[in-house]
Amino acid sequence: MDTLLLLNPIAFSIGALKVHWYGLILGTAALLGLLLVIREGKRFNIPQEVFMDMVLLGVPSAIIGARIYYVAFKWEDYKGNFWDVFKIWNGGIAIYGALIGAIICAVIFFRRKGYNFWRMADICAPGLIVGQMIGRWGNFVNQEAYGGPVEESFLRDKLHLPDFIVNQMNVEGVFHHPAFLYESVWSFAGLILLLVLRRQKFMRAGEMFMSYFIWYSIGRFFIEAVRTDSLAFQAPEWVASFVNGLWSPMTALGFEQGYLDPAYGNVRISQLLAIGIIVVAIVFIVVRRVTGKADARYSDPIVSSKVAVDDIGYTATVTGEEEKVTTTPSSTQDDSKQVEDKKE
């Protein structure tokens, strides 16, 4: 039975230029995430140009980081075909690499703009998870990032998925878990959670951003093990047993881990990284609360240090001009009075 593809990976062509659905979906994801961030930024009187510039710099940084991360762990597949490294439209980017690239760019950018990174990262958190929620559908079109084999009845009768998803999960005659869909739905639930959290008075600076990482990493830990294309490495056996033990509750839900070639590795990198991120994020929140460093709340005003300096200079100039205008009539009246006294 041949693979059933309902969608051509190429959306349209302009001459020799082929525009892929993968790129269009990622672009749409970035745009919708940006609009959500801009809307929240207005509550803090942050110019939308700040976020637009951030996206213009952040998206390329994220793509570069994602590709470097992926290729670094798949170097054996690319060292003989160097030009394939640049063919990102064929897939092969890692979300954690994208986050690393985007965060490095954001730290530098916001610092240059005079904004506190944690405050701005909090505002951007819902936009990030929106981007991931939509971006995963690029994997759907490319028929990648799927899970292990399943029966067609599991997709149709248990998950009640529509035909266009079920058929796309038919890879060379075998149906697979729609791991991209699991992650997209998990991200949607995370979006709702973040939108609720950001209106809570107890939220402090940096905690929205950390909440995003905690939520996404929990989902990624469990979903990653279902996939068959995970980046992996050879770890001590006790590490593999620990990771598999944490994942074992999924078996009660009828899930099985996707095949992982023992020669390639025994621990999925994304799973181990997800555990580390969750621990670091929780420690970050607790330590900042205990030490009193989490003094700023999410709802507190956000002001750029550079904008503040400019405003002070402008205010001083205006005030000085007002004083001149105010003193001029008074001086004129005094001069007139002196003239009248002389006349008398």
What does this structure look like?
There is one protein chain. The protein has 344 residues and is mainly α. Helices cover 64% and strands 5% of the residues. The strands form three sheets. A two-stranded antiparallel sheet has the order 1-2. It is globular and about 60 Å long. Mean pLDDT is 85; it is low at 1-5 and 308-344.
Q: What is the rounded distance between the termini?
A: 117 Å
Assembly category: single chain
Please state the CA-atom Rg, rounded to the nearest Å: 28 Å
Strand order across the largest sheet: 1-2
Q: What helical percentage do the residues reach?
A: 55-70%
Write down the overall mean pLDDT.
85
Uncertain runs: 1-5, 308-344
* Largest sheet properties: 2 strands, antiparallel
Strands, total number: 6
Shape: globular
Derived structural class: mainly alpha
Helix/strand layout:
Elements: E1 10-14, E2 17-20, H1 21-43, H2 48-73, H3 75-78, H4 95-113, H5 117-142, H6 152-158, H7 163-168, E3 170-171, E4 174-175, H8 179-197, H9 207-224, E5 232-233, H10 237-247, E6 267-268, H11 269-291, H12 305-343
Antiparallel strand pairs: 1-2, 3-4, 5-6
Helix pairs in contact: 1-2, 1-5, 2-4, 4-5, 5-8, 5-9, 8-9, 9-11
